[in-house]
């Protein structure tokens, strides 16, 4: 299938614009197939209008209908076959196993939401029956459930061209919730996006979902992106990317006549506290962490960018071993020239700060747009005094902070910003001693891990991917796992509503047999 | 007990400031007992510091401990006896049955949260056990639950001096969640607030909660309020009041280094769609609505400020009967001079708009600071063209909009802003015909009612009090009912955490016997 480069305005392909962009091979600087036509104002406007009209139909679809729709999207993505994998590898410079894995994750995610919808209880149906005889006042019949919030705007991430992109977690959870989606394609993998959008539109048609349930447009964030977020039709925004990009959307959303939630996952430095008992076990620790720092060329928002330690006789050995491990890992091509340049610049700036010691840097030559694994160290006082050192450097870089004692460690943790993850390495008995700093770490992150590495985010019910600001704009929600659906719904209460007019989830007979809270008791029974 | 007028800086009374305010009898202009000393910068700072220190202890309290604490607050409020009721009546000009009822609601609310905590399942404990053998990658043990967000700032409302004030729904839900609270007292009922704060502090001491779990300060929103909201220690804000006040807090919160959620419930005009079959039943409808428009001198955020009708042969009769009902209801004293003046001004401005007809106005003389029941009408076109007519007029006023037909009604609903409630009156068979406009109303409100009146907000599991902007700043949360606790918690995921370090809610043995989702199944079993 050849790439047409057009915008998906609902089910209709459209290319009225006169601006376009191509994607270039990072190694040869030759353009890949496909010229992507930026959407015009009118095209974006039409996509929004269609989405709004679709909403009033789509929101009334049953959970089962939406589940089958999501499964059809997953099937259509698999039907794209190797063409998708080849294009994604080319655009992202990520290796085949990673991309095949990411495709598996993407369709797995769609099917996970389908299974959530088939079970159905996630809507939190809650019923308090009427008490007409109650004194001094009778109680009305009150029934509440989560209902879709409206049209959702999704911005593709660059580092997960499938799983956090066109049919990624934001789109899957919004569609599952009953919200139409408008995706702004990322300029670094627009071919991948086009293939995925084609699959989604096939599914829209096969599943008889209304035209406008899904749209995807090309163009820059400043024009197309801004136009979407500022439009009153849009009720929520999903974004994964840089702090700068996320905060721009957040500000735009708050300037609107009606402010809307922006769910921006903006990354973090993911502090890893390596307690003395773990430092002692230096061989294992060094290879485990060198591997986590460099996996995927460090291009994960859960990359361990900060290692917290306490000075003791074993720390020097651990530092030496960690440097050696880092030295022997080959640099690899990054996602794009832009990302590689930002990595080099950020690293150079960090290493030039007062009090920073370069511990190790890969000594293997590789490609041009490489991310060179690097580890540095700093003492706690210098770290605390210099906020520059608290910033994320997106790539295979980590900074080891040496604290004098538990007290200083506690001060270091107190000055950390919000994080996606925090990790504690050590023996269980030792952790009791560090209970307060662990509690303080927990209070600063969305996920706290024990004796593991933060890279690798499981897609499941129990995942929390998000965290206190600036890791994410809203710590109360996750962008990974079934909980992600909560971002795009709001509770609506129906008072004394005739049974025939109630959503199935709230009807007397509980036709979906979902778990509900009825008169303060959890039950699947009918009334 | 005589009123000291001091600030509650945690458990310590403090009055270092040189500014103060008194509260005046609306009828005699004589001051009531008590001079309320505004908190100084240093006092506010200390309250914040204490709250932050208390948080790390309080967040680790068990649900049962917090339940008993809330029950003790309720008991201590009842122990204040009639002194509280007398003072609240004096400060609010609300009648005794209303204030006694509101006290009942306030302690009922505290006990409701206590019972929620004793049951315990609201934390949404979710467990996905490790799958060490899974291919291609093993799964870690992942456990998630809702954890307290941090220190919460509460702004008292003027119209509910007990239920939306010092120990009202915001405070009760934040304390239930595990968050320390700092209340800014409302200047119109500071004596009531002092009595309640005294009761809370007694409960803090009796329950051995840390000093700083609760503070209350006097002072203006511009100084004391702003200082609290801008302080990085505060993690969320609860507010009920005017659009202007709520939006000021919302803007401040978004200007911070770390933006925080502001839950501002800012009222609405609560459209009531009276379908032809209900209009026909004009006697009942007229008395029901006249009563809802004027109850509590119209000082409810759920007051029916907008009545939507379709022209037919019965509408003139209904209008006439509604006017007659309104004419014979006596004006009554409003909460304060300020509120009464705003009501008069707003009403005068509304009635002077082009195309507005005054249908009826109470013809009974009463006190000076009275709210005079008033009903006006307008045709749909004029209403749609003039946004001035969509604004809330806080008091016993309502505007009846006459639409030509279903199509025009639909256009009117399309141009309405977000609402706390929407109401549909009519026969069930008729509602089927109006299904689309009802769906559109539902999409614009937090609670949709059938054949009732929006005034009267039940405190229960199924209540949703909130709605799309500008009714509230965040439609995804409620400020009334058990759901209110969700505002002050965030999910935290524990990965491979040793059982001994897990919160009780997530431990293998499920000691609290709460309902959890374990490996995708709802269960109260241990692992």
Automatic annotation (TrEMBL), chains A, B:
InterPro entries named in the record: Ald_DH/histidinol_DH, Ald_DH_N, Aldehyde_DH_dom, Aldehyde_DH_Superfamily, ALDH_KGSADH
Keywords: Oxidoreductase
MF terms in GO: oxidoreductase activity, acting on the aldehyde or oxo group of donors, NAD or NADP as acceptor
Top-level lineage group: Bacteria
Gene3D superfamilies assigned to the protein according to its UniProt record, in alphabetical order: Aldehyde Dehydrogenase, Chain A, domain 1 (3.40.605.10)
Start and end residues of each Aldehyde dehydrogenase domain: 34-467
Pfam families: Aldedh
Protein name listed in UniProt: Aldehyde dehydrogenase (NADP(+))
Organism: Halarcobacter anaerophilus
